[in-house]
């Protein structure tokens, strides 16, 4: 897994896979034609690229993830905080909340996460 970055179009295609996996490559191409208005060749090209990145695998014509959606977005979030905020979650939260107030539900969810992290 060298480059786990995906562009917006690749992400939409990845969502189709994650929502339907395991899925045959031919069914995936049909879904991409319906949802993204893609030709079969486009689907296979993007699928190959995502497989080469190590995010998905295509074995025997059946496509499945090597990296689940939640894990992928967790890795992307960690990378963003590392690159943009020198790995400081408090710095990220300070920047985030400087323009957007957190709801009471969001604050409670953060408190629970902190408490669970302390315990575990």
Can you walk through the features of this model?
This protein is mostly helical and 120 residues long. Helices cover 67% and strands 8% of the residues. The protein has helices spanning 8-20, 25-36, 40-52, 69-85, 89-97, 104-119, and strands spanning 23-24, 56-59, 62-65. It has a 3-stranded antiparallel sheet. A hairpin with a 2-residue loop joins strand 2 and strand 3. The longest helix is centred in the middle third of the chain and has 17 residues, at 69-85. It is elongated and about 45 Å long.
Tell me the β content: 5-15%
- Largest beta-sheet characterization: 3 strands, antiparallel
Oligomer: single chain
On the 0 to 100 scale, the average pLDDT is 93
Structural shape: elongated
Radius of gyration: 18 Å
Query: First CA to last CA: what distance?
Result: 29 Å
Order of helices and strands: HEHHEEHHH
Helix and strand content put the structural class at: mainly alpha
Helical residue percent?
Answer: 55-70%
Beta strand count: 3
Question: How is this structure best summarized?
Answer:
With 120 residues, the chain is mainly alpha-helical. It contains six helices and three strands.
Give a quick set of tags describing it:
single chain; 120 residues; mainly alpha; three-stranded antiparallel sheet; 3 strands; 67% helix
